[in-house]
Amino acid sequence: MESNTDLNKDMKRFAPGTVDVQEDGSMVLTLTRTYAAAPADVWAMLTQPEKTELWWAKVRGKAQTGSPFDLKWLNVKDEHGHADETEWWNGRVIQGQAPDVLEISNAMHGTIRVELSADGTGTKMVFANIISVPKDVALMSLSGWHVHLDHLAEALDGKKVDWAHWWDDFYPCWEQVHAAYQSADR
Q1: What is the dihedral of CA 150, 75, 184, 106, to 10 degrees?
Q2: What is the distance between the alpha carbons of residues 74 and 53, in angstroms, rounded to a whole number?
Q3: Which residues pair with 112 in a beta bridge?
Q4: 86 by DSSP, 3-state: which?
Q5: From the centroid of its chain, how far is CA 9?
Q6: What is the dihedral of CA 135, 177, 51, 61, to 10 degrees?
Q7: Which of 52, 75, 126, 176 has its CA 20 to 30 A from that of 96?
Q8: Digit-coded pLDDT (tens) for 51-64
């Protein structure tokens, strides 16, 4: 695996996501990506704990409908500015249909739904996160998902994020993406 210095930091290779406000006030954050990997390979990156840590979070559970599916974020800092992990955020698989649909509920991130479909020799992903938060928080979350899904493209190419250095390496990328989303929302 390659280091963070070999990872993309441009964050412009994928189209921006969208925020849609629902009648009940919840927000649907949607990002669409196409990856140069088979749906089964993308599914593995979403569901296998040894692979999710390369680009997203620690996962505890199985991607089967009704099973627990807990997440532990790896790109956080403690009160002294050192790399840290969050507590486990409990979740459950609402729908697990390999390799097409993974929908989970999560204590911190509401509902996350990922739909995968073959697209030529690759995979089209439609990622949706349904959350009930103020618009400014939704834009922060959308920015985070944008960066994580970029990390997924890198993981599919055999690279991984060095979480201990994420803030130095990728927080500036997150800030760039977040500023673009804020600007587009005005």
Answers
A1: 90
A2: 8
A3: 104, 129
A4: coil
A5: 16
A6: -10
A7: 75
A8: 999 999 999 999 99
Q: What is the largest CA-CA distance in the chain?
A: 47
Specify the number of domains making up the chain.
1
Report the distance separating Cα 81 and Cα 112, nearest Å. 29
Residue 47 has pLDDT above 70, yes or no: yes
Q: Is 51 helix (H, G, I), strand (E, B) or coil?
A: helix
How far apart CA 19 and CA 106 sit, in angstroms, is: 19
Kindly report the pTM of this predicted structure. 0.89
The radius of gyration of the chain's CA atoms, rounded to the nearest angstrom, is 16
List the beta bridge partners of residue 46: none
Q: Are 105 and 111 in contact (CB under 8 A)?
A: yes
Cβ within 8 Å of residue 79, ≥6 positions away: none
CB contact at 8 A, 170 and 50? no
| Domain residue limits at 142 | 4-185
**Which CATH number goes with the domain that contains 172?**
3.30.530.20
